Amino acid sequence: MSKPRLIAFYLPQYYPTKENDEWWGKGFTEWTNVGRAKPLFKGHYQPRVPADLGYYDLRVPEVRIQQAEMAKNAGIEGFCYWHYWFAGKRMLDRVFGEVVETGKPDFPFCLCWANHSWYAKTWDPNKPSKLLIEQTYPGIEDYEEHFYAMLPAFKDRRYIRINEKILFAVYDPLNIPEPQLFIETWNRLARENGLEGFYFMGFTIKDSLKQEILKVGFDSVLVDFVFGASEKSGTLPNIYIKKILRKLLRKPITIEYSQYSQYLLNNYIVNENVYPSICPNYDHSPRSKFRGTIIVNSTPQKWKKLCHEMFSKVSVRSAEDNLVFIKAWNEWGEGNYLEPDLKYGTQFLDVIRDVLEKVK
Predict the structure, then answer these.
(1) Cα angle vertex 257, ends 206, 282, to 5°?
(2) Residue 158: which of 82, 61, 224, 77 has the closest Cα?
(3) What would the pLDDT profile of 158-198 be if each residue is shown by its tens digit?
(4) Which Pfam families does the entry mention (predicted)?
(5) Domain residues of the chain, as ranges?
(6) pTM of the prediction?
(7) What are the CA-CA distances from residue 53 to residues 22, 56, 59, 235, 342 (Å)?
(8) Considering the domain 5-37+48-228+258-282+300-358, what is its CATH architecture?
């Protein structure tokens, strides 16, 4: 029996860069969409306003230190930073780069390569989205360049490891044309540089893809059940009705938090190389308005119930690999965060600490 090792996904968030100024306009940040969000139906919790940290800027070191202190006090082991690499070009890399360079905050971390193209999305199926930067895979030389660019992080004592191996996740593992070549190249380079190798984790929103991800060479799979729950909620006719309402009446697709949590608990099977991602809240409407998916009625009480049941369920694992990911720490543009807001304060964080204390 063991307590879970909790790792929260961490978004570097938008901040002024040459590309961001060109694509989104000067001054665009994560808070642009968050601040102008509006309720779309009765009882819809928008806008969401950050509390303790305010409308912060992640380029400020003190903010990052405060975040780490909050997470540590709640019992979270570390952050999993979203990492962007486009054939030699790194995007939004300043925040994590400074974490590595300065040694602050003194808080564990790992990386998840968000290997997908970026678009200026219209969120309208009748209007094509504009490609901003394409995710490509030039081959072994690019894999080598990618590895050496991140080697200082991999050698950092704060980097999270599983049985001495570096934990590295990939958002779309099956999008890599030759995943085995990528995996073999990085493991070889790791050994050549005095490291034990990698513990590769493939991320997926489709539970049905677990075996396929393992088959191509990944050591483990991380499953996010939010969209599976959204698709499976209610009867099939109700799903079609929701889609019609979204199109004709400009109503978003909604799912009750209790439905999401029950779907997650029913469908996640404890397996030695399959890990769960749990979600305190989710509301994509700040970015996509009525075309988004929204989990409604998420409360600290319901979050506590999910944490208690999931932590108990995975307690059969060994302490080393009892991983539970939380999505997310600070994705405010998707209404997906643990950080304090004006409505609930620190209650979502307090729940984690309280439940962990009761897990034996």
Answers:
(1) 65
(2) 77
(3) 999 999 999 999 999 999 999 999 999 999 999 999 999 99
(4) Glyco_tran_WbsX
(5) 5-37+48-228+258-282+300-358
(6) 0.95
(7) 28, 6, 13, 41, 11
(8) Alpha-Beta Barrel (3.20)
